[in-house]
Amino acid sequence: MLDGKCPSGPIHEKWDRRKQELKLVSPANKRRYKIIVVGTGLAGASAAATLGELGCNVEAFCYQDSPRRGHSIAAQGGINAAKNYPNDGDSIFRLFYDTVKGGDFRAREANVYRLAMISNSIIDQCVAQGVPFARDYAGYLDNRSFGGAQVSRTFYARGQTGQQLLLGAYAALMRQVRAGSVKLYPRTEMLDLVIVDGEAKGITVRDLVSGDIKCHAADAVCLCTGGYTNVFYLSTNAMGSNVTAVYRAYKKGAFFANPCFTQIHPTCIPVSGEHQSKLTLMSESLRNDGRVWVPKNKGDERPPSEIAEPERDYYLERKYPAFGNLAPRDIASRAAKEVCDEGRGVGPGGYGVYLDFEDAIKRLGENTIRERYGNLFEMYERITGEDAYKQPMRIYPAPHYAMGGLWVDYNLQSNIQGLFVLGEANFSDHGANRLGASALMQGLADGYFIISYTIADYLALTKPGSVNTGHAEFRRSIEDVNASIKKLLSINGRRTVNEFHRKLGRIMWEYVGMSRNEDGLKKALAVIPELRAEFWENVTVTGSGEELNQELEKAGRVADFLEFAELMARDAFYRNESCGGHFRVEHQMPDGEAKRDDEDFCYVAAWEFKGINKEPELHKEPLSFEDVKPAVRSYK
Amino acid sequence: MDLNLFVWRQKRPDEKGAMERYEAEDISPDMSFLEMLDVVNEELIKRGMEPIAFDHDCREGICGMCSQVINGIPHGPREKTTACQLHMRNFKDGDTIYIEPFRAKAFPVIKDLIIDRSALDRIIQAGGYISAHTGGVPDANTILIPKEDADTAMDAAECIGCGACVAACPNGSAMLFTAAKVSHLAVLPQGKIEAARRVCVMTEAMLKEGFGNCGNHYECQAACPKGIKVKFIAKLNREYIKAQIGIK
Ligand SMILES: Cc1cc2nc3c(=O)[nH]c(=O)nc-3n(C[C@H](O)[C@H](O)[C@H](O)COP(=O)(O)OP(=O)(O)OC[C@H]3O[C@@H](n4cnc5c(N)ncnc54)[C@H](O)[C@@H]3O)c2cc1C
Ligand code: SF4
Ligand code: FES
Residue with the nearest Cα to atom 1 of ligand 2? Predict the structure, then answer.
């Protein structure tokens, strides 16, 4: 039985109690510790900046050419905090409650409460850094609403909140680079975790420009490498987003928790053809003012303007009157799929629904809408060639976020000592479904306000610099990495890396996507290993390892996705219940809502690697709910 | 549609590059420019040839990674649009398209269309921040900011750090990029305290990195995919003069 090691006591005292228990490292000693931070998105940049500022020696890695480009940059909508500035009844408890309920009772209560507590400090921190959040005419911070909440608690910077938060964290990071406490390694990809005597002591990386394979040793390692929804090939993630860093840690013994908990976002621009390389999100904040509908009649191909009010089905408002267009993501996504499967979808291919701003423009004027969402409307126009001020947007669900990730305890430490996992890369706070505007909050909570306390507790018991790259484990790691690169380059098959990735994506979308069932999952478990075997026989990777080689980078990532996909399908198979984003068609309420099974599945599924083509071992961390009573999640 | 491409190919930084000709066939108007290059690359790989290397990541116009000069214009012909957001409906069947990397003295080519833009990071390192420690800051609403100022700061802060302004400038100046950061922070009360030092060290870093001087050509504004305005260069100049003569 796995233990999350949560502090005891009443929920609102737990974090303070833990902080009391944690050991400190004196300022003079901090300088002697080296910490590796992989990833410079919100979680990594904030962690590296904060640890550097406290005096540790930090090495920060990212695969892009600059730390400012982590995919956090793409977050549009906003970041939650329990400030209750609008005086509409928000509180730390309510944010905590909404997040636990939104996650369909599959998250750890103590973690979520801490997140809600810290949320307010994040906003303070970001404002102090100069993040230009939206303001009202009196100069106060403005808020808007997001899905799954009945209060207005989301702070935003136009439609570029993630960009502004990341640029704030990046600036803090650059300040530490200047101060000499952080050393940057951009265009560098982590390809292995190095473990010495059971503890994480370094990483092996590839310099993406020269192709050199090198090791870095440290006293602790933080992985902040983001989410893995590119396992679906098409997702809202960046092209380079990958599972590689966390998956290779998993292969070195770190448990992977709830890999099947992935979020399909309801409002993305629909697929336009075979060539599609990624999907673009239209922020959920649009659902504040946009109304979702499809024609009442099947196969109605008239343009939207010719479909009169009584012939439209505003299905979210109809089915979920209390939350309406702001129903949580998993619910809104499934509802869209349902109406399209019924043949009432719109646009080419019939896989789309309307998001209509006509009423909002009438009510508020085009200018207000432009001010709120102008950049999103522009982006929509660039991609589709359509003007959403004049005709409704077409949207469809797309893979977006990974609730699953490496297992961590309350201190964000994995089961491997010295390995910490932050941000989207861990599994900790969102249960089976994440509410909008809470990933940015989590990444920054982990990086600015949690890791500096918890990592100190580990460092205090660790002799600084005890391991260096001369150790045999580092040499072995380099050999392994070199061998797998050599293998990829030597296959010389007939199919491209993209072809395999696209094919894997189709399998995952079909069988491990928005709704899943036993037969489909069995099928996935059978065909994924076949595709993987074919990859290792028939893939072609051009160029060499000793140069900048983007095909090789992609090949390594797709090779990991091909293994990870099986783990994801297996987890979905074993979780024989529906909860949040994990919808098993066998388990639904008469009205089609997800039916949880708290008797048998109220646990975190943490998987231990046992070898390729071998079944991983399942460890369970039971979840208990003391402050929020598990209930049927209802948004009606 | 079918297109004729001339693409800059260069194996290594120290090697001489050249334009090479490729055909892009069966291109759909709904493809993005980078998806069109994906199609070309898949073809090349299948023929055992090296695909064209180009930087990209988010493909939604926000990470600032893509860095191509398309028909002589950084990010291509459509205004306020990054290369990754440019769609093929902006071209027509039979068009010839020239694709090169962003060029500037401070941006050496690494391979094909990929350049080294780390000089921009070093300008920020010099002082493009507010020195706020983690924790120990006041409640967010104790710092009131007039809406117009917050909006102006945001207008400047939208810069994605792509470097198109540098590539468009006849002098290879990074003035628009630097001015955007200086202005974003200088209009906010939190940023005013360090404003004088900031403008000096960032300007100095910019020159040290080998970027040229601003000659008021305003090509930068025309090329900027985020619509960053040259009025921020004027703001930088004002901040610089204020700093030089010691006005707070
Ligand atoms: C389009 C979009 C919109 C979103 N909108 C919102 C929103 O409005 N509100 C909200 O709360 N959340 C939103 N999210 C979710 C949120 O943005 C992410 O969950 C969050 O930013 C992840 O941050 P991170 O720091 O964990 O990872 P990322 O920002 O993804 O950073 C990952 C980092 O790891 C590095 N990396 C990855 N693999 C390797 C490797 N192998 N070696 C070296 N480095 C590596 C990358 O270079 C990068 O620096 C959105 C997500 C998307 C995709
Ligand atoms: S100012 Fe414009 S062109 Fe220059 S780096 Fe910023 S976004 Fe790119
Ligand atoms: S790829 Fe991110 S801006 Fe073009």
Answer: B177
Of B45, B78, B154, Cβ closest to residue A157: B154
Q: Which of A108, A206, A329, A516 is catalytic?
A: A329
Number of structural domains (chain A) is 3
* pLDDT at A139 (0 to 100): 97
Q: Collect the ranges in chain A with pLDDT lower than 70.
A: none
The CA distance from A71 to the nearest CA of chain B, in Å, is 7
**Which DSSP letter does residue B219 get?**
H
Contacts of residue B31 in chain A, CB cutoff 8 Å? 273, 275
Q: Are strands A213-217 and A199-207 parallel, antiparallel or unpaired?
A: antiparallel
Query: What letters, b where the CB count within 10 A reaches 16 and e where it falls short, cover B78-100?
Result: bebbbbbbbbbebbeeebebebb
Kindly determine whether residue A174 and residue B116, on different chains, have CB atoms separated by under 8 Å: no
Spans of chain B below 70 pLDDT: 248
Does residue A4 belong to any structural domain of this protein?
no
The domain limits of chain B are 3-111, 118-245
pTM over 0.80, yes/no: yes
* Residue whose entry in the numeric block shows the structure tokens 């799954």: A148
Domain housing A140: 19-221+237-261+403-459
Residues contacting residue A323 through CB under 8 Å, at least 6 positions apart: A147, A148, A150, A316, A635
- pLDDT value at position A308? 96
Examine the residue annotation and report whether A329 is marked as an active-site residue of this protein: yes
Is the distance from CB of A425 to CB of A444 less than 8 angstroms? Answer: no
Distance in angstroms between the alpha carbons of the first and the last residue of chain B: 59
User: Residues A407, A482: one domain?
Assistant: no
Instruction: Report the SS3 class of residue B19.
Output: strand
Q: What residues have CB less than 8 Å from A542, skipping those under 6 apart?
A: A549, A551, B44, B45, B48, B49, B50, B51
List the residue whose alpha carbon is closest to atom 37 of ligand 1.
A225
pLDDT value at residue A77: 87
Cβ–Cβ gap B145/A139 under 8 Å: yes
pLDDT of residue A375: 83
pLDDT at A166: 98
Half-sphere exposure of A587 (CA within 13 A, CB side): 20
Beta bridge partners of A2: none
Rounded CA separation B64/B177 (Å) = 12
User: β-strands A57-61, A34-38: how paired?
Assistant: parallel
Residue A266: per-residue pLDDT: 93
Cα B162 to middle of ligand 3, angstroms: 9
Mutate to test the pocket of ligand 2, among B165, B209, B214, B235 (most ligand atoms within 8 A of CB): B165
Tell me the pLDDT of chain B averaged across its residues: 97
- The CATH number given to B118-245 is 1.10.1060.10
Helix (H, G, I), strand (E, B) or coil at A2: coil
The burial of A622, by beta-carbon neighbours within 10 Å (0-12 exposed, 13-18 middle, 19 or more buried), is given as exposed
pLDDT at residue A593 in the model: 81
Nearest-by-Cβ selection for A127 from B55, B110, B140: B140
Q: Which ipTM value was assigned to this complex? A: 0.98
Q: What would be the CATH architecture of the domain defined by B3-111?
A: Roll (3.10)
